[in-house]
Amino acid sequence: MGTSTENAGPDAAHGPHAQGAADGPASPSADGAATAGHGAAPEGPRAAAIGPQPGPVDAPAAAAGPQAEAAGPQAEGAAVRSGRPGPPVALSPSRAGDFMQCPLLYRFRVIDKLPEKPSPAATRGTVVHAVLERLFDAPAAERTAGGARAMVAGEWEKLLAKRPELAELFADDPAGERLAGWLSDAEALVERWFTLEDPTRLEPAERELYVETVLESGLQLRGFIDRVDVAPTGEVRIVDYKTGKAPRPQFAEGALFQMKFYALVVWRLRGVVPRRLQLVYLGSGDIITYDPGESELLAVERKLLALWEAIQTATATGDWRPRPTKLCGWCDHQAHCPEFGGTPPVYPLEIRPADGA
């Protein structure tokens, strides 16, 4: 179906037919907003509205990595959440992206669960997402740019209280100058959103919505959707905020993969194909929209099944190969990667020889 990219004014997005901001493969320096999950546990009413709510054991944490939030790798099963080695049991957009980018990176995050350092950009993305989520708690008339900017420092303090280790980001900043600049950058991203959408004319059906479904094949899909808008006619729009810049057109398809993943999950849960997918790029002030069709979502489902089969084969055989790209320069796991002369940790799972070996 059609893809649209444009700079949007504040009246550009007020319903499933409206134009929105763009997202593509976030660059390694882009603020974290590229993956599912932003560090908040799903709340009952929100999670139940579209899909089954995960219980205390099933709720995945937030995603990590160059394009992700500051809260650590997104859980792919009970073993991941407990920190114990174990095979993957579900697939999220971020982890699917990891495997496509580099199978060994997927192993490090999901199987070995190697720690990753939080980055200022990813942490800023978490704070901005929190502001844009909680802004809608206020009555429409009170959703102002000034009020949203004022929320930034408070959301940073809340995040810091939950994750004290984030203080290390500014440990070498005793005067607080770097922190002040970082907060100012976050405020600017929040303020730019008001040039793209008008929150006084939006009443999201869901915010930070945890969705989960099991396909007929048995593959479990899960993730967090930033915002779901539902028109009076029942048409659904899925919105994702990106605090980085919009990608070049040739990379737009990679950016839309995450959104098509969410669209597939919502379709399987509600029986309705979302009318519009919308990526809002706060770093560049762009909006990308895409109107999916059933045939495209079926193609995404086939792709995910093929990915999952490859992941299961690698899990069983222990054959996780690196795939060198320009993104390797930002990887936290170079010390364990053969491409950089490193040695992966001892494989923690039982290895089953490949068929015919």
At a glance:
The chain is built from nine helices and six strands, in the order βαααααααβββαββα. With 357 residues, it is α+β, with helices and mostly antiparallel strands. It has one domain.
> Which class of secondary structure composition applies to the elements?
alpha+beta
How many strands, what sense, and barrel or not for the largest sheet? 6 strands, mixed
Alpha plus pi helix count: 9
Overall pLDDT level: 82
Side-by-side strand order of the widest sheet: 1-6-5-4-3-2
Terminal CA distance: 44 Å
Choose one word for the global shape.
globular
Radius of gyration, CA atoms, in whole angstroms: 20 Å
Any low-confidence stretches, pLDDT <50, length ≥5? 7-82
Q: What is the element string, with H for helices and E for strands?
A: EHHHHHHHEEEHEEH
**Into which percent range does the helicity of residues fall?**
25-40%
Strand-residue proportion: 5-15%
| Number of strand segments | 6
Query: Number of folding domains?
Result: 1
Region (Disordered): 1-95
Protein name: RecB family exonuclease
Biased composition (Low complexity): 30-44, 56-80
Keywords: ATP-binding, DNA damage, DNA repair, Exonuclease, Helicase, Hydrolase, Nuclease, Nucleotide-binding
What does this structure look like?
- By secondary structure, the protein is of the alpha+beta class.
- The protein has one domain (1-343).
- The protein has nine helices and six strands, in the order βαααααααβββαββα.
- The protein has helices at residues 44-50, 78-82, 93-101, 103-111, 120-134, 145-162, 177-193, 252-270, 294-317; strands at 3-7, 206-214, 220-230, 236-242, 276-281, 286-290.
- The chain has a six-stranded mixed β-sheet with strand order 1-6-5-4-3-2.
- A hairpin with a 5-residue loop joins strand 2 (206-214) and strand 3.
- The longest helix has 24 residues, at 294-317.
- The protein is globular, with a radius of gyration of 20 Å.
- The protein starts with a strand and ends in a 40-residue tail after the last helix.
- Mean pLDDT is 82; it is low at 7-82.
